[in-house]
Specification:
By secondary structure, this protein is of the alpha+beta class. It has three domains: 2-55 and 138-219, Outer membrane lipoprotein wza fold like; 70-135, wza like domain (wza like fold), CATH 3.30.1950; 355-530, Outer membrane lipoprotein wza domain like (Outer membrane lipoprotein wza fold like, Roll), CATH 3.10.560. Helices cover 24% and strands 29% of the residues.
Length: 537
Amino acid sequence: MKKILLFLMIIINLVWGVDIAMTQTPTNNNMESNITLKEPPFGYNLFKGNFANIRQFIYNPHYRINIGDKILIVFWGAFENEITVTVDNQGNIFIPKVGVIHVMGLEASKLNILIQNAVKKVFKNNVFVYANVLNYQPINVFVTGNVNYPGLYQGLSTDSIIQFLDKAKGINLKDGSFRKIYVKRNGKIIKSYDLYNFLLGGNLRMMEFKNGDIIYVGSLKYYVYVTGDVKRAYRFELLYPEITLQKLKKYALPNETATSVIVKHWDKNGKLITKKYSINDNPFIFNGDEVNFISEHNAKQITIKLDGAIKGSHTLIVKKGTSLKEVLNKLNYSPFANKNAIQLYRKSIAKLQKQLIDAELKDLEQKVLTSSSVTTAGATIKKEEAQLIMEFIKRAKQIQPKGRVVLNKETNLSQVILEDGDTIYIPKKSSIVTIQGEVRIPGAQTYVPGYSVDDYIKSVGGFSSRADKKHILIIRQSGKVITYDDTAFFKKHIKIKKGDSILVLSKPNSENLQITKDITQILYQIAVSAGVVLRLF
């Protein structure tokens, strides 16, 4: 007896499955209200029941007449009448005085012609007919995949895909895809939908559903979070693992006050990397990234870059007014870090250094172009020299200073207030001394205790013919610069340390002492600000 009752219950569920699926009501309109997300998915409020109970009888010329459809037939002329007929279980309709007409499977656009031809066989003259489908027979469509209430739902063949999804209480906001929705018929995908076309542009392709069609909602795979100074702060679904910032802006619609973008990215090792871009840049944004649009007109935070021998994130976002000492105290140093040679690079300093060099180059250029010579031979030499100096000026203009702020042992780091875009570099402990510039074989040498500047220069083959022995620079890892004159009778004793760089500048070769002095000064500034020894000719 129990087996019989169980069997009857199964049959009842199968027969009334449509009604059960349609009458089940969740406690909330949105089944995902109890799920905590960083930002709601774009389109999360689309399915609130506003489409589910609406039936729209839209004329579809390709609709095929089905069992149960009601058809209005109007006669006028020599015979006047108006009747409504229903397509019976055999797919036929019956018209008095005309007879039985098979209409099952006939396209709606051909219905009027079929009935008219049948009527003309009975009423030969002056009888006209108009036929119209009053209502379409409901069909049953399966809705499955990542929806909140998978099931079999009833609707019209002319209903939109949004209506059927709304009947299933919408897409699962945690795992469901708004962009990979498929309609299957007889095991094959006949149409795919991307609801972003509807959400962003109001475009929705209509189709005619058939009994037994399956709507399948795919799984969310790629996405990014957008927050901050935008009109749309949502989780946006991506079709591919990456998207450009400019394309993402079309989704998010930044406000006019937005000036910058901060991107948080997790690499393969789970390491958080934070980068800052101008809103006009176009970097790639990757799956899982968090993108924050900010306005820096009244920024309360600044972004600091970290480099060198440290562990963890290489970007920090700190409050305005944070000191260098506060940041250094928070860093996770590598065992090889040289904490006594912290380096600070600042964009505003680099800009100032560039302006000073460009000003001196411009002044040098004017002097070269305005200088003259008394003799013809002297004029020829001046011309050749001028060409060489102009070539030097051209190359020097391309040099980009680093903007290093020199930190001495006496520097009070708590008084060094950081600026937006500063870079803090923590060098590794080094046992190398580099020798660059006007030496025969520029390169790196291992540190030798007690070696002097001359000893290291000899170790790389000595000075080149262009070396300015009066202007040798020793640059410590901290950025401190020491000058050395190798031609002095009483040479300055300089203790070379591990990690030092020895830069031998070029010697200008000009009859004009002022030009020689100017070039020497420019070479010195370039070497100090950019760490580059620029050859003259």
